[in-house]
Amino acid sequence: MIIKKRLVTGAAGLLAALACGLILPPTATADEPSRPSPKVELVLDVSGSMRARDVDGASRMSAAKQAFNEVLDATPEEVRLGIRTLGATYPGKDRKVGCQDSKQLYPVGHVDRTEAKAAVATLRPTGWTPIGLALRGASKDLAGDDATRRIVLITDGEDSCGRPDPCDVARELAADGTHLVVDTLGLTPDRKVREQLSCIAEATGGTYTAVQHTDELSSRIKQLVRRTAETPVQTPTGVQGAAQCAKAPELGTGLYNDRERFGEHRWYRMKVAPGKELRASVSVAADRAVDPDYGVLLRAVTPGGRELVRGSEAGSGRTDVISTGLRYPVADADDDEDTTPRTVCLELSQSFSAPAGVKRTPGLPVELAVDVVDNDEPPADVAAFGLGRGWVLLGVLAVTGLVAGLVWGWVARWRITVWRSN
After folding, report:
1. For the chain, give me the number of helices (H) and strands (E)?
2. Which CATH class is domain 39-230?
3. What is the predicted pLDDT for the residue at 26?
4. Contact 21/319 with Cβ under 8 angstroms?
5. Which residues, including other chains, have CB under 8 Å from residue 140's CB and lie 6 or more apart?
6. Residue 214, exposed/middle/buried by CB under 10 A (0-12, 13-18, 19+)?
7. Can you tell me the distance from the alpha carbon of 298 to that of 282, in angstroms, rounded to the nearest whole number?
8. What is the distance between the alpha carbons of residues 17 and 370, in angstroms, rounded to a whole number?
């Protein structure tokens, strides 16, 4: 009965952890060094189409300026903020020149509100819409330390240059491993604009929002700037999994990112001492169009190939990310037994596929979180509650449901009998 109770308790705990999508790393302590203050850059489209007067009776440019002034007044002191423009200086028709038109209007740093507002006041709708170029420039503007980074792109149209493609640039930024998030705001309900801005946001884990009123624009930018200040920083470490466990990189506790091609299997290794528990979770992002049926599998395996426990998840339809996780405790060693840490191999595989014409490279973004914690109750068979042994929890739930149904049926019949007798 004790073992059964532990199995049920452990399974409930694991499911609660996986429901969050990611088993979180330990909370930072007061002894850890302070992180650099967060950075955010507002990237504003100043192309000629921003002259259109369809935002609360004013031009799109006027709405953006008003929103920016309100955002500057509300920017938290700890946030380092900058402003970059695209299409702000070249009014001509030379595509080559117009597609290089992006510059930093206000440098990333602690905000001098008077100076920043004066810079915004000079803007006039002018030229082209080189979104891909502006995103690359903004990424460079935010470089320099391991602070939280966020780009907020505000535009009324899709990229008018084609190269570099904004979606490809967003995937490049995601692949760099800097944990840079791009949020996009569209000032027009155009379908092509929505699709492109959604693609940019999804590739980096950001959000897309359609706005048609000045107060909506101001409110949303303020929210994103505040979110930058509130987001805890944990920059993933780049790693490249191997084709087999024997050649896999050995990981320590932390957060890692990788790229995995469609249908590929990648291996990693962990050392887990007796009396400790391995916790691992993985998220695979669909940063491009994929077929509607997909799944992800994470297995813990011995170096000899024996499966210890697995976590899996599958879905159908449109998705941005799919996640799963596992827990594996190693039993305490007796005094006369070897206390050498055990090698546990982690195998990651996914069943994503893509329609013809979709780029296969680089691979899909992978984020892997691993942790080793004390195992307070490490009976040798606790691993049975893992996702690879789901029949235990399923059996408990089935028996519980059966008993509850019988009791409820008996109570219902008793109440009917009493009612009829009265």
Report:
1. 9, 15
2. alpha beta
3. 40
4. no
5. none
6. buried
7. 7
8. 13
Token duo for residue 164:
């570099």
Closest CA to 134 of 69, 198, 200: 200
Terminal alpha carbon distance of the chain: 44
Rounded to a whole number of angstroms, the CA Rg of the chain reads 27
Average pLDDT, the chain: 80
Residue-level pLDDT at 12: 39
The β-bridge partners of 41 are 82, 151
- For domain 2-23+236-389, give the fold: Jelly Rolls (2.60.120)
Please state at what angle helix 191-204 crosses helix 166-175, rounded to 10 degrees. Answer: 10
Tokens read off for 64: 């953006």
List the chain domain ranges. 2-23+236-389, 39-230
Amino acid at 45: D
Cβ–Cβ < 8 Å for 151, 39: no
Contact 20, 130 (CB under 8 A): no
The per-residue DSSP string of 100-128 comes to T-EEEEEEEEE--HHHHHHHHHT----B-
Among candidates 272, 235, 242, which has minimal Cα distance to 256? 235
Contacts of residues 22-28 at CB distance under 8 Å and 24 or more positions apart, as own/partner, are 22/281, 22/283, 22/323, 22/325, 22/367, 22/369, 23/279, 23/280, 23/281, 23/325, 23/327, 23/369, 23/371, 24/369, 25/234, 25/253, 25/254, 25/255, 25/369, 25/371, 26/371, 28/232
Matching residue, tokens 């930093």: 104
Structure tokens of 3?
Answer: 């073992």
CA 343 to chain centre: 29
How far is residue 260's CA from residue 244's CA, in Å, rounded to a whole number? 14
- pLDDT tens digits, residue range 1-54? 433 333 333 433 433 343 343 334 444 444 445 678 899 999 999 999 999 998
Alpha carbon distance 394, 401 (integer Å)? 10
What tokens appear for 35 in the block? 């992180």
- Identical topology for domains 2-23+236-389 and 39-230: no
Average pLDDT over residues 184-195: 89
